[in-house]
Amino acid sequence: MRRLGVRKVGSGIKIKLLLTAFSLFLLFFLLKSIGSFSISKVEIKRENADCVSDMQLLEASQLIGSSVFINDRALEKKIKDSYICIGSAKLKYVFPNRFVLLVQGRKAVLDVSELPDKKTSEDILLSFTGYANSSESGNILEVDASNSAQVNNTTYDYLLDEEGVIFGKNINRQNLVKVLVDTPDPKIGQRYESRVITNLVRAKSILDSQNIYPGRLILLLDRFLIAEGMPKIVLDLRQDTDQQLASLQLILQMAKIDSENIEFIDLRFDKPVVRYAPKKK
Q1: How confident is the model at residue 173 (pLDDT cuts 50, 70, 90)?
Q2: What pLDDT does residue 190 have?
């Protein structure tokens, strides 16, 4: 019985020694892998981001050799500031000092080009609508609208994403909604108010659902959307767009019921301005 007890004690010591040795080996392996808690390897995965190479991304991010305790927001800002075509950049932990950089390119929602008309934006809006705001209350003043602004297409087309950022030229002629803007000489990196762009895309979708396909869409003052066609339509993209679009749908439905043709709809006011085409005798 005593001999058996000695064997049990000896076996226990051996197990403890083995566990200690294994723990030390594991600790050594982890410390060697982590090194000085710096990133040693980065794998890059991308989506719609062929505008920049892996080497350029690594140089812009400066990840190799950096601390593993990195600020994700600061990293994303650094990459987006370096390459305007990048929409997001996220760092994913894989192993102690190895990471995956997930990069997504910006997705174009609009084709933007400069409005070549040399008139002021206010004059263009005035000539299109036939009146101007005379006060903040929304009163209108009738004017002669016989000289409507003539708008021609321009060859400088740019890609605009949902955040309102111009991030590239439309070299491949992507089939996008084309918008003419009154911004002189649009440039890559230029920004529009994201809310305005989101509302513009929604407005175009509503027009499509109503089988209204404007010949041209014009954005004035980063605010007013002009849809040239039949009917002509004006919206204020910084105001309650939901209410304006709901009014538009109601006006079109009522006109269809009454068999009336509408020439012009201005949705910028609490009470929309509607101009009907003369009925044929």
Answers
A1: confident
A2: 92
Tell whether the torsion through CA atoms of 45, 50, 51 and 55 is positive or negative.
positive
Residues 185, 134 within the same domain: yes
The strand pairing partners of 266, in sequence order, are 234, 273
218 vs 157: CA distance, rounded Å: 14
In which region does residue 135 sit, left (phi positive, over 0), alpha (psi from -120 to 50) or beta (all else)? beta
86-95 sheet: strands from edge to edge:
41-47, 98-105, 86-95
3-state DSSP assignment of residue 14: helix
Predicted structure pTM score:
0.70
Of 99, 32, 37, the closest CA to residue 69 belongs to 37
Task: Summarize pLDDT for 62-89 with one digit per residue, the tens.
Answer: 888 887 778 889 999 999 999 999 999 9
| CA distances in angstroms from 255 to 137, 207, 261, 280, 281, listed in the order given | 27, 15, 7, 15, 18
195 Cβ contact list (under 8 Å, min separation 6)? 237, 238
Same domain? For 124 and 157 the reply is yes
- CATH label of the domain that carries residue 113: 3.40.50
Question: Rounded to 5 degrees, what are φ and ψ at 180?
Answer: -95, 135
